[in-house]
Amino acid sequence: MFDLLVEGGHVVEPGGLRRRTLAVQDGRIAALLEPGAGEAKAKIDASGCIVLPGLVDAHVHFREPGLTHKEDFDSGSRAAALGGVTTVMVMPTDKPMTQNAQQFAEKRALAQGRCRVDFALQALVGPDLSHVPSLAREGAISFEIFLGLIGEKIEDSARLVAALAAVRDAGGIAAVTPYDEGLAAAAPALPPEVEAAGMARAICAQRIAGGRMHLRQVSSALGLAALALAGPGVTSEVTPHNLLLTRETLTRLGAVAKVVPPLRSEDDTLAMRQALAAGRISIVATDHAPHTPQEKDAGLAKAPGGFPGVQTMLPLLLKLVADGALSHADLVRVACEQPARIFGLYPRKGSLQPGADADLVLVDPSRPMQIRNADQASKAGRTPFDGWTVPATPRMTLLRGEALCVDGKIVGEPRGRFVSPLVYT
Predict the structure, then answer these.
(1) Where along the chain do its domains lie?
(2) CATH topology of domain 2-51+357-410
(3) For burial by CB atoms within 10 Å, which of 33, 91, 130, 190 has the most?
(4) Does 287 qualify as catalytic in the annotation?
(5) Catalytic residue among 94, 118, 268, 287
(6) What is the arithmetic mean of pLDDT over 389-407?
(7) pLDDT band at residue 231 under the 50/70/90 scheme
(8) What CATH architecture does domain 54-342 belong to?
(9) In 104-141, which positions are buried (b, 16+ CB within 10 angstroms) versus exposed (e)?
């Protein structure tokens, strides 16, 4: 007898949606059964729903420690659970930035017992490379390299090659935020040329250093042209807002839609959707980057760039499926399976195969949903997607077979765990 059966729902298989019963034992998927098969201590009726693996968001800023007026592990993970995201990878750009083993351990301790979804931690790589081996031993999910935008950036190409080599030798993956400081100074609006030049530089450095590299936030057709230079070992991401919003949104909404990299043209947005569907971009990640309403109210020129995204990612991807830009199989590939594969969590995460953690999201395709500021769990409170209607509603999110939220309400106590390639080896 199983612990739990999730009955009546449809799972995504290569041939399309198929009605299956998911059996859960000890927090993991035990079997995929034919309808009506199996006995269990408890059952969930998923009739009419699509059952997806819990989403894996490889790029979130939960702002803890030091910036908790913007977000913290509790508020950010509530937003994740409500959005069907069951694993988050938390960026290191807090106060202090996470760049040595002590800071890593302290941040992990802050999240334990307060994070409602499973969490991985990313480490910052600056000019001092001596901390890379110890951070790898601590279980850093990635090593973040910024070519601009923050103080601990790596501008010199020789240092970039050395940083990539250090991450390679530690067995990790370097995640690069592409940027060109010189071009940015000449063109303050951060046009696609700033992104493309940074990407080309990072790709050339990776060709010299070897190892694995993940490129953050591809946002333009010119960036895609630079991405075409990449060889083996290079993966990439796009945000939901760069799939759906354009410069017109910024003109219309003002600071609430201000983000870095900035929103692009309609042609860029279309190019990003086509590249994602074709597999030329590896994954979708949100860059969930909340700021307070007061900070955004400072006006377009002074307001910081960034807005929440972890709660709206799945609804927006479901809209893209309904619009024909993606299939359900594409959704699972780019938001579940591939993020888990790239960062060493597959097959325990991002999958419904036996042995995977029973992280599930049940989606009702017959019930449209309106995205509203009032429903956002993030401390940011505002989303540029306020008022959008999406064609399906996340009905239930489960972590290791236990409900995190039901019909838009958080249930139970926080039980998210620290995850890393070391944990799942």
Answers:
(1) 2-51+357-410, 54-342
(2) Urease, subunit C; domain 1 (2.30.40)
(3) 91
(4) yes
(5) 287
(6) 97
(7) very high
(8) Alpha-Beta Barrel (3.20)
(9) beebbebbeebbbbbbbbbbbbbeebebbeebbebbbb
